[in-house]
């Protein structure tokens, strides 16, 4: 099957073929997994649930879902399942109820009412077809099935007082935007889900703060080293700007550039509602 937006990932600023990409993803998972797990537990997850994970990183949350739902099934839909840094196929070979699928979510389909839970984290905002995928995903939910979408909301750039910070992050966000990223899409997601019939909506915002030793900093630090060659090659940043950023005193580099916004809800059970 043809992978969706493979080129945007492998040739983009977050290079799926980078030798350090697995480490970047693992650091991101260490930071984000506890929040995602707590929210999924709050959705009253059950051992027989059938789950879909859209974009799995290195597979840590998919593996947790498979352990949490031993009587069910977990499908990991990832565009780089067989070629990316996550080595996802090794998860699938070791966990009987975990299926790793390299699919194009705009072309390949699941039957309506397949899943009890659909989860996507830090992936849909990067895909120009995000709204169409979301609409299809809602149809894949069983009646009373739950959906949890988590993505970045980028805070206004003018709030950052230091030029050294704004130079680097403006360049980073501009490159992402050129690849189709929308850092404000998640803010509109609750109304989009409501319009698709999702009920019991809940929104949780987790601040991303750099400079205080949070685990997200490791992921950013690895990613920044990956991004440097492109920054310099394309001229979006000069070596002087990069060095100024790297040499910021720690006490002046504490800042909050974005939020992880988690939006959940469920597809109503029409039979239960009419009973």
General description of the model:
With 275 residues, this protein is α/β, with parallel strands linked by helices. It has one domain: Rossmann fold (3-Layer(aba) Sandwich), CATH 3.40.50. It has helices at 6-10, 21-42, 60-68, 88-94, 130-140, 163-178, 185-195, 216-234, 239-246, 270-274, and strands at residues 50-54, 73-77, 98-101, 115-121, 141-154, 199-210, 255-266. Strands 3-2-1-4-5-7-6 form a 7-stranded mixed β-sheet, with helices on both faces. The longest helix is centred in the N-terminal third of the chain and has 22 residues, at 21-42. It is elongated. Mean pLDDT is 85; it is low at 1-10. GO terms for molecular function: methyltransferase activity. Residues 52-146 form the Methyltransferase type domain. Keywords: Methyltransferase, Transferase. This is Methyltransferase domain-containing protein.
Main sheet: strands, sense, barrel = 7 strands, mixed
State the shape: elongated
Number of domains: 1
- How many distinct helices? 10
Through-space gap between termini = 43 Å
Q: In angstroms, what is the radius of gyration?
A: 19 Å
Strand content: 15-25%
Give the topology string: H per helix, E per strand. HHEHEHEEHEHHEHHEH
Oligomeric category? single chain
- Mean pLDDT comes to 85
Given the helix and strand composition, which structural class is it? alpha/beta
Helical coverage, percent range: 40-55%
CATH superfamily placement: Vaccinia Virus protein VP39
* Low-confidence region ranges: 1-10
Q: What top-tier CATH class fits best?
A: Alpha Beta
Query: How many β strands by DSSP?
Result: 7
């Amino acid at each position: 099957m043809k992978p969706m937006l493979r080129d945007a990932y492998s040739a983009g600023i977050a290079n799926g073929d980078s030798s350090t990409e697995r480490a970047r993803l693992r650091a991101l998972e260490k930071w984000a997994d506890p929040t995602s797990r707590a929210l999924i537990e709050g959705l009253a997850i059950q051992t027989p649930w059938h789950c879909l994970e859209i974009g799995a990183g290195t597979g840590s949350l998919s593996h947790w879902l498979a352990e949490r739902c031993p009587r069910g099934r977990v499908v990991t839909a990832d565009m780089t399942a067989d070629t990316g840094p996550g080595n996802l196929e090794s998860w699938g070979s070791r966990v009987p109820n975990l299926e790793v699928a390299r699919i194009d979510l705009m072309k390949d389909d699941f039957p309506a009412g397949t899943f009890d839970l659909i989860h996507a984290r830090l992936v849909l905002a990067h895909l120009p077809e995000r709204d169409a995928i979301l609409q299809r995903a809602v149809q894949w939910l069983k009646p009373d099935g739950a959906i949890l979408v988590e993505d970045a909301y980028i805070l206004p750039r003018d709030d950052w007082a230091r030029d050294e910070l704004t130079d680097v992050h403006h360049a980073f966000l501009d490159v992402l935007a050129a690849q189709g990223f929308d850092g404000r899409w998640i803010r509109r997601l609750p109304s989009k889900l409501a319009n698709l019939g999702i009920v019991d909506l809940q929104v949780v915002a987790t601040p991303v703060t750099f400079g205080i030793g949070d685990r997200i900093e490791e992921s950013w630090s690895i990613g920044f080293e990956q991004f440097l060659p492109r920054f310099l090659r394309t001229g979006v940043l000069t070596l002087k700007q990069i060095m100024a950023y790297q040499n910021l005193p720690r006490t002046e580099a504490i800042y909050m550039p974005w939020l992880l916004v988690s939006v959940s809800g469920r597809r109503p059970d029409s039979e239960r509602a009419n009973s």
